[in-house]
Amino acid sequence: MNKNYTELPNGYLETINNGINGVRKFRDGMTAGILSRKEALVRLKKLIRTSDAVVIGAGAGLSTSAGFIYSGERFEKWFSDFKRVYGFQDMYAGGFYPYPSKEIFWAYWARYIYINRYLDPPKPVYQDLYSLVKDKDYFVITTNVDHCFQKAGFDKERLFYTQGDYGLFQSTDPDNLNTYDNEEWVMQAMEAQGFVRNAEGTFEMPENGTLRMEIPTELLPVCPDDGASMTMNLRSDETFVEDEGWHKASAAYYRFLKNHERKHILFLEIGVGLNTPVIIKYPFWQMTNDDPNAVYACLNYNEAYCPFQIARRSICIDGDCGEVIRDLLEE
Question: Is the entire prediction scored with pTM above 0.90?
Fold first, then answer.
């Protein structure tokens, strides 16, 4: 049954509109900033201490810095058999591969979800970021779907995951606007492929190194409410389910921004690329431009820049996000 959330303010729509307005406004070019790296670090440290609030906008670069890399050694460890049989070279490509059966498709996705949602990232970048802002009035908007903010200690009431969560399924029935935790299913699907738990409860390769690349048909995920097949709760088209929790987080983001208008607010963008700039990057530029008390900061590897119009109220620091955050933590 469809649910009506029109009584809640829509922070997602608000940020998209801000982003669209920003695209139209910033036509004078971009700059890497007017401060040296040392000056930028000093100024950003001070702003984190003295600002009334911090709005963190996080993209894939933050999780990449934390070690959630979708190719190379990590890919080889968990998906070498899929690579050998199907030929793709990274996890992302594997997520779109036209597998010959649903049993193989869901075997792949069980591994994908497990390592990117239920394992901790190799590096404590999110914990470091939390240490940096835990005593501030903060809010986080992110396009990441790996749950790393909550695992690092961030208050879930101050988080808005705009694009979904690897830990959630949704029904393929378009009338069902609920989402469903998938942890129990993921663990069963990992065991069904032959992974074994170690003393810490983490799955590892079996001693013989042989895995099954499919799950039993009876383990295919089915919605407990309507009996339809399940799919991932990830925004890829208009079928993405924005459930009650999503709408509440969207409203919380809206209220946070409204409650801090014209205050000394820091828009701290971390690891945001150009896949979905209209959700974080462009709105941050627009809100900084509109509020003379706001400051924009961008931490990014080879993509730290801002519009000329807000350069004097911007801080751009090029480099690995985790290393920059560590620098900010040092006295």
Answer: yes
